[in-house]
Fold each of these.
Amino acid sequence: MRLAADPRNGRFLAIVLLLIAVLLGYLLLVHWWFVAPDLAIASQVQDLRDQQQRFAGIVAQRPLIEKRMAQVRAFEQGNQAFLSDADANSAFSDLTQRLKQAISARVKDENKCAIVSNSNFKGGEEELYERVTIQVRMRCSLEPLAQILYELENSNPYLFVDQLLIYRQQIGYVPPGAKVRPQTALDIRFNLSGYLRKAGKKGA
């Protein structure tokens, strides 16, 4: 004996199928063709508005930024850490003169401390500012040497001493068995550097 189908189940199934058909029709015929592009455009418009607000904030800060930049430029011009020379050639001479001044200020007798030779040094690592270096060879005793190096590294503009090498040398000939103590001097070699205000290759 077959049971009669319930009309209510048939209507419910028909409604479900109709809803599924409407949803598929909406997705295939309406959403992807009309709604999705509008949503994408709305998202782009919102992104553009956010960017506009950020740019407007930056533009509003322009007077403050220009003021800060002017302060930085003024500080840079008045900064005594850099050599005042315009180019490396004049800076080489300036470094040599500053070294001579430091020696004359600390040593009265040139025989006790003097420059043997100095030469310009070009090369080394690229830095943010152009570095100027002279290679120095001196004959000097230890005490005035320490004072000279201290004065060089604690002055304006900023100077830097590196590659320091010290050798002990005997001056003159002393015969074997002589009671005279041999005279000794220090052979000192180092690099003396300073920076120009203009940018170096690394900062270009």
Note: The mean pLDDT is 78.
Amino acid sequence: MADYQGKKVVIVGLGITGLSCVDFFIRQGVTPKVIDTRKQPGGLDKLPADVEYHTGGFHQTWLNDADLIVSSPGIALSTPELAEAANLGVEIVGDIELFCREAKAPIVAITGSNGKSTVTTLVGEMASADGIRVGVGGNIGVPALTLLTKPHDLYVLELSSFQLETTYSLKAAAATVLNISEDHMNRYPLGLEQYREAKLHIYKNAKVCVYNEDDALTLPLAGKDARCVSFGVGKGDYQLDNTNRVLKVHDEKLLSTAQMYLSGQHNYMNALAALALADAVGISRQAATEVLKTYHGLAHRFQLVYSHQGVRWINDSKATNVGSTEAALKGLEVDGTLHLLLGGDGKSADFTALLPYISGNNVRLYCFGQDGQALANLRPDVSLLTVTMEEAMRALAPKVKSSDMVLLSPACASLDQFRSFEQRGDEFARLARELG
């Protein structure tokens, strides 16, 4: 446990994570200061009265005079104000680093461009089913520091590349990088390799490293070693046998995919990764298998929200990057026409990776939002460009027939037109019921 007594602590960024940091330091007997660049950040009304705060920009004097800055993962370390403080020798960490210094129970750490929320939830459900007191959080649900307020036997954390950039003390019992594809390229000006290095930081000091046999970028930088366990399609320690549609562990059949609610190759990969992590930390195989038979999946992740007259309306609004949309389309079987909704803020991504999945004759594209034009340019012959998702859905509704699928898998962030991907998904579901 670290000692913060007498330290001048500044928290940058409020919201629920910032508030969890404030609460953490107050429990340590330290009253931090808070900075948020927004004028009216969420959580301002919940700050204790004795906590000084500054909103609407940075407060450089506070930053430079601090002993410790706890920065929101949404603010890059290269931000000039943070860089100035760092050059003066101020330590800058994130909330996950604070958590790792305090946590007594083993940690399962999960990252990747796509699927991490599903895998994190699965491992948490598996541990719970086995009677383990498990705390699930990080980049999903509960802020990590809040988990410290109750006793746990195991922690399962979803971690973003942003969070990993300011985490130095993680020693995971088991860690995984599920996949690597272009995302947040506006944050990583040096490209995919810079983003990958941030993700692979999760393996440092991990006991077990679970990597994807189908994605060489998920291997530790030093290559395969004794800590490594793999999952993949037709290969790996944990594998999907596509011919017989079964999940195997070390070549032994464990579960038929027909016994699972989750569907799609990407979800079978998520299941295998979760199994590997569960095995690594001693969760019983029986508990893990039962969860795979009963788990229905997360909202906004390839979620069937409406089915009427043979038409399926699928909400995959969580597909906020190209790799996630690729995962949804890979191996997708549609008897009729696929009506695919694409659009939003592409975060400087290259959309051409989608071309192999949208080249068929039974695909129609409906593109909207900030990068709608760039997406429509992939296949102008089958694309309709609109300003909003609602306009796109009203245009496609009269065209759908039995055996068709309407899929929102936008390959983009939502913030150009929505508060969040959840709001975008909820709006899709509402319109599906109205138009379908």
Note: The chain has a mean pLDDT of 95.
Amino acid sequence: MIMKTSTLKCIGVFSLLFIVAGLQAQNRYRVEDVPNVQLQDYTRYVSDPENALDMADVMWLDERLARLRDSLIVETAIVVLPAIDRQYGSAKEFATELFNSWGIGDRESHNGLLILLLTADGEREIVFETGYGTEKVLTDGFCKLIQVQKMVPFLKEGAYGEGLIVGVEEVEKIFNGTSEFQVKKPLLSNNEKLALIWLVGGLIIIFLVEWIRKKRIVASDDPFVNAAKYQSLSGIGCLMATLFFPSYFLYMLYKAIAKKEDMPRLNCEKCGAKGKVVLKYKPQVEQKAIPGQDGLKRYHFICKACNHGYKVLVPYKYVAPQTSSGGGSSFSSGSSSSSSSRGGSWGGGRSGGGGASTKF
């Protein structure tokens, strides 16, 4: 009789353990187990299968998220679960898979947001998963700040509804530009400042190099021949174009538009005027260059002060004419495939894992 009683007790204990284990197993959700409330009712945005939230909080959240969707074009889903299946490496991984499985947000702008709340002891965590478009405004940093400074104080006390409400309110402020976490952006970012310094610095260096080269020509023993041979940025042009390409492009554009004289302004040997001698005509070919023999070009300079002229002959090398060959151009056509639209009222948005998670 005693043996039978002990056996019955053991059976009862094991049965109870199996029941508890079964309940715990049922409380661990996989992505496919989470009910998508949008498929049931397009006015619902909160999936709370274990009824962890008060009905009044759920109604408030549904109403606020509907307004967020209509006014700011941000589709938001809230999911409250006790725990997730152990097959997922993290709650963030679960959120990313759930987001993409449901397709939260528009398929063009990817303006979705998933807020996942886990409530089981030892596994409590709040997760934000943002779509590709949403993360441009609701950055990972903002997600973390909202969780830590606004939501976690309530969530730690078990006030899940209040925590979600303040989180949604702060998300709305972020998109309206009225959040305390948003600081006024400077006129230029650090990268933009560096780019501007590089651009302006390049222009200054190019102008300075040109000025020094022209000064050397003016002070040389044969300034007229050297001036005739002068070429803008010759020799260091490739270096300048490589180091300061945008600056080099702007410099050449400026010269083309302003039609600045490329040759240095020389000093007049007759009247002594400084920088008044300029090229009067385009150089004329005195002797045409042929293969194996240089040609001669005649340059005519004139002083703008006394009208005295200078003529110099400068040799130039033969340049073989270039032949152009026509080449066919090939075009590759790619086939584009479009995935079928998802059911329910979600628009097929995608997430690349943006957002943040905080355990509490």
Note: Residues 16-25, 325-343 have pLDDT under 50 and may be disordered.
Amino acid sequence: MATEPIKVLVVDDEPNIRDLLTTSLKFNGFSVYAVGNGNDAVLAAEKGKPDIILLDVMLPDQSGFAVTKKIRAMGIDVPVLFLSARDETEDKITGLTVGGDDYITKPFSLDEIVARINAILRRTQKVETEESVLEVGEILMNEDAHEVFVGGQAVEFSPTEYKLLRFLMTNANRVMSKGQILDHVWEYDFGGEMGIVESYVSYLRKKLDPLTTEPVIITKRGVGYMYKSSK
């Protein structure tokens, strides 16, 4: 039986970019649906159930960041790859904060787009584990249901936050370097952008620290990060 093609939702208000991405991605075996504004993007994300969204940051009716906030509030956890003409660190951090998974600046190569899509799907669709429940210290991760409980309380994480937390938990009480984290969590060469790791560790701490008796993610200055567990 043939495998269903991966469904990509392309959101960009520039017709030439929509057409270019649609043609290229279809050539690479993806199923593509394209829209030109934020309202249509929200509807397509809800009705079309895409596997990944390529989302322009600057849209005529609302920002790509606002679109992402809306679909996340609706419980849609599909991975989001932001497209932007601005190569600003602040924008990248904003995109990741609202639940995006990656950020690429225009002009981009079509080969790079395909590589980013494949890397995001590898890290968000498949969680390699022999057990469906991972429990380390005060945190329990149900991998079948893709749920995380901290001290018995359910906590929502983006796909990348989840992958990072899982990697740290499976290496509890071992210091992981930023390079190791990039390799295992992002599975993509960010060209030395180690700040992406710092940002995501910060997001995890904001969600975890208020619910744990003591901080579980420890910084080893100059080395990396460690998930600390007494169990």
Note: The CA atoms of residues 3 and 29 lie 11 Å apart.
